């Protein structure tokens, strides 16, 4: 199936129109395309896509959606790629960062080999091709060990009696029909629901992949499941599927199959709702997992906590949503020590007199100060993504590089500030290059290794905030 590819940089809504990709001419004044964008945006907190005249911008997301133009019949695949592509970082390293953060956020269970194999193709591969490559390779590896089979209950009318006789049907038969039996029995088959999920995913993948190698592995897996029926599968039906000790090895392919089916299958008038990673939420969860891995033995690290006073008190101080920080670091006894708020933002401001800022806007300061006071914590910390000291060929990429990185806090001058009442405010960056260099190793949905220097620096920094 032929596609027209549109590549849109993430977080590009504030960019000047001439720096954005053009929309194909048939979509510029298309009311149907505008409706499609509205439907996609209605599913998320911030706009995913924004049409600017004949250009397209994206919000803080990474992923893809597909739109089919009814007039021309062409399928437009809109790929939102990470903003860390900009400035010289290779597409392979950019996707490596995104996949490792997504592995934590969705608890996928990716291995380093899965990511390395999927990113082996040069150039800007569409995100769906990367997902399909990981899915097809892991599925194919497991199928080579053996196709999963199980006993499935089957009902039929037969001239021979076996299994269970369906008495409720037999008593209703006419004498001329009693030479055959209505029976129910179990038979061992590979044509079960789990394999049907995989076959339908392979079917969708073969229609949409653009990479030759991915098509080859999808086709090979398809051939191995030739005895399995091809039937449409809904995401809701996958939710009801539970794995057992015999098929647990298919856990990752099943998780990816759910993502691919939900992204490529026709739903609610859309040719594809796509698969969109909300990067602010994913980065926030990455910060939480990192802090818990470093501090979890001596402190309690809570994610999206809600103070019972704000939730249960009558009358309520907060009519709708009670205040909920991203992360709270507490003592072992439960005393709040530090409130942490993760901000997936660039701090660069070309129009400002001071371009290298430490806070995006005043609302971020109001928010962290309010959280700190409401939860009676010692300090608040704002954490931003950054990219520093990373060379790729002749290109050199930096992003929020003036922030104090978690691996070198002791050498920074600007990592702790004070509000007017002496409440401490920490501002830190997490150098995403740590995920490339494996200073922070992510595997199978967990942070498995952290450079001792990062641990030492962060613990020392926490002590300076609370003492």
From TrEMBL:
It holds the Pfam family McrBC. It comes from the Archaea. One of its GO terms (molecular function) is type IV site-specific deoxyribonuclease activity. One of its GO terms (cellular component) is endonuclease complex. This is 5-methylcytosine restriction system, catalytic subunit. It comes from Thermococcus kodakarensis (strain ATCC BAA-918 / JCM 12380 / KOD1).
């Amino acid at each position: 199936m032929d596609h027209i590819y549109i590549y849109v940089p993430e977080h590009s809504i504030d960019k000047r129109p001439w720096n954005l990709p053009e929309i194909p001419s048939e979509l510029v004044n298309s009311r149907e395309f505008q409706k499609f964008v509205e439907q996609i945006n209605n599913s998320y907190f911030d706009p995913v896509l924004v049409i600017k005249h004949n250009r397209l911008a994206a919000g803080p997301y990474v992923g893809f959606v597909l739109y089919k133009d009814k007039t021309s019949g062409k399928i437009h695949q809109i790929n939102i790629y990470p903003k860390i592509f900009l400035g010289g970082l290779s597409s392979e390293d950019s996707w490596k960062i995104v996949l490792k953060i997504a592995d934590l956020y969705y608890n996928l269970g990716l291995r380093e080999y899965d990511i390395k194999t999927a990113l082996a193709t040069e150039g800007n591969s569409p995100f769906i091709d990367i997902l399909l490559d990981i899915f097809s390779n892991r599925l194919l590896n497991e199928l080579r060990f053996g196709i999963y089979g199980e006993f499935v209950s089957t009902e039929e009318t037969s001239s021979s009696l076996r299994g269970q006789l369906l008495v409720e049907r037999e008593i209703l038969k006419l004498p001329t029909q009693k030479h055959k039996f209505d029976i129910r029995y179990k038979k061992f088959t590979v044509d079960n629901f789990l394999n049907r999920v995989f076959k339908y995913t392979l079917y969708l993948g073969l229609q949409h992949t653009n990479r030759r190698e991915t098509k080859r592995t999808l086709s090979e897996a398809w051939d191995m499941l030739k005895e399995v029926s091809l039937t449409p599968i809904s995401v809701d039906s996958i939710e009801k599927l539970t794995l057992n000790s015999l098929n647990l090895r298919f856990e990752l392919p099943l998780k990816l199959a759910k993502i691919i089916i939900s992204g490529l299958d026709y739903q609610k008038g859309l040719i594809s709702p796509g698969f969109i990673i909300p990067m602010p939420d994913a980065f926030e969860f990455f910060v939480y997992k990192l802090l818990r891995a470093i501090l979890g033995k001596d402190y309690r690290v809570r994610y999206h906590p809600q103070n019972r006073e704000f939730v249960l008190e009558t009358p309520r101080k907060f009519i709708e949503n009670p205040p909920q920080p991203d992360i709270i670091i507490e003592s072992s006894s439960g005393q709040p020590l530090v409130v942490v708020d993760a901000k997936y933002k660039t701090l660069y401001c070309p129009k400002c007199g001071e371009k290298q800022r430490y806070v995006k806007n005043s609302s971020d300061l109001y928010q962290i100060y309010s959280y700190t006071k409401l939860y009676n914590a010692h300090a608040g910390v704002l954490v931003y993504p950054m990219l520093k000291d990373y060379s790729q060929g002749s290109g050199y990429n930096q992003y929020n590089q003036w922030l104090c990185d978690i691996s070198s806090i002791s050498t920074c001058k600007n990592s702790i500030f004070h509000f007017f009442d002496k409440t401490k405010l920490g501002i830190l960056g997490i150098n995403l290059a740590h995920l490339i260099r494996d200073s922070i190793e992510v595997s199978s949905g967990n942070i498995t290794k952290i450079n001792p220097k990062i641990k030492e620096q962060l613990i020392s920094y926490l002590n300076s905030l609370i003492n």
